[in-house]
Amino acid sequence: MSVPAAPLDAPPGQPKKAATAAWIGSALEYYDFFIYGSAAALIFPEVFFDESDPATATLLSLATFGVAYAARPIGALFLGHFGDKLGRKKIMVFTLMLMGLSTFLIGCLPTREQVGTLAPVLLVLCRILQGISAAGEQASANSMSLEHAPPNRRGFFTSFTLSGTQGGQLLATLVFIPVAALPEDQLLAWGWRIPFWLSFVVAVVGYVIRRTLDETPTFTQQAATEGVPKMPLAVLLREHWADVLRVVAAALVASVSTIFTVWALSYATSDSVGMDRTSMLWVAALANLVALGAIPLWATLSDRIGRRPVFLLGAAGSAVTMFAYLWAISTGSYPLVLVLGIVAFGVVYSAANGVWPSFYGEMFTTRVRLSGMAIGTQIGFAIAGFAVTFAAQIAGPDGDNWSAVALFTAALCVPPVIAALTARETHKVPTERLGERAEQDTTGREKVTA
C-alpha cells in the first residue's frame, strides 16, 4: 500500500474566492442559458417559426432548446481534454466569453418575417455555441471549487456552482417578467431582444472576476510532479469508465429542471390551461429564490451524512413532487401551483442539485476530474435537454396530457436512483485520494490504495 500524500492546502482565502468565482460566473453564464429557455417557450414560436401552425412552431422552438444539449457532449470532449491539460482557470474564462458572445448574437438575429428560413438556422447555430460553452462551465467551476475546498467542506463549497446556476435562472426570470408584460407588438418587435443584449455585461463582469483566480493546488502539484496526461480521455475511459456511466445515469435527474423550466411553463400558458404568463414566471422566480437557500443547506448536510442519501432523496422525491406540480397546473389554481412549484423545484430537487457537484467530482482523480465530470454530465444533460421535446410529443396534439409527462419525468428519475445506490460514499475521503481504487480492510471499513 502506498503512503498517503500530504494534504494540499489552498492559500488563505482561495476556497472562498474560488466558490465566489464559481457562483458569480455560473450565475452570469446560466443567465444567458436560461433566458433562451423562457424565450423558446414564450417568444420564439412566433418570431422564428411558422405562425400558421402554432403547435408545430412550439414543438420546433422547444427542439432548439434541446439542440444546445446535443452539442454539449461534443463540447465536453474538447473542453474536458484541455481543462485537464491546461488547467481549470483557462476553461472557466473561455466558456464565459463564448456564452456571452453567442447570447448577444441571438439578440441581434433577424426574424423569420425578415429573412425566412435563414432565421431559425442562425438561431440554431448560436444555440450550439451556447451548448459548447455550457459543456465546460460547470465541470471547470466544480473542479476549481472542489480542489480549493477544505476536505471536510467540499460539499458546501462546490454547491456554490449550482446555487449560482439557480441565481442565474432567477435573474433570467426576473429580467423576463417586465419584458413579457410589454404589449404584444412591442414584445415581438424588439422587447425580447433586451435580455440577450444584456449578456455583454455578463461577459465583462465574469472575465474580471475569473481572471484573478489562482489555479488549484492539486492540479498545480499534479502538473509539477507526475505531469498531466497527454490524452486525458484515454486515461478516463481506461480507469474510470464505470464512474463515467454512473454520472451519465445520475445526470438524467436534470430532466426535472428542464421539464419544470420550459415544458411546464409552456403548458401552463397554453390555451388548454390559460394561466397568466407573468404569474408563471413568478412561480419560477420564487422557486429559484428558495433553491438559493436550500442548495447550500443540502450540501452542508451531505458533508455530515454523505452524498448518497441526500442525492437519493432529491432524485426519488422529485419523481413524486413533479407529478404533484403538473397536476396543480392542470387545475388552474395559482396558489396551488405556487406552493407545489416551490416545494418540487425549490426544496426537493435542490437536494440532488446541490450535492451532485461534489458527488460526481469525487468519483475521479485530479488528472481526469474535469474530463470525467464534463463528459459524464453532458451526455446525461443532453438527454435531459431533449426531454422537453419528448414531453411536447407525449402531451398529445392539444398539449394537455400532463399525466403522461409526469410519468415520463418520474421514469427519468429511476436511473439516477440506481446510479447513487451503486456509487461509493466519498465525503470522508481525502481530496488527494479521490478517485483511487477502493478496497476493504480487515475491519470491513473502506480504505484507498493507489
UniProtKB/TrEMBL annotation:
SUPFAM superfamilies: MFS general substrate transporter (SSF103473). Residues 18-428 form the Major facilitator superfamily (MFS) profile domain. It is a multi-pass membrane protein. InterPro entries: MFS, MFS_dom, MFS_trans_sf. Gene3D superfamilies: MFS general substrate transporter like domains. It comes from the Bacteria. Pfam families: MFS_1 (PF07690). The chain crosses the membrane at residues 21-44, 56-79, 91-112, 156-181, 187-209, 247-268, 280-298, 310-328, 334-352, 373-396, 402-423. Residues 429-450 are annotated as: Disordered. Keywords: Cell membrane, Membrane, Transmembrane, Transmembrane helix, Transport. It is found in: Cell membrane. This is MHS family MFS transporter.
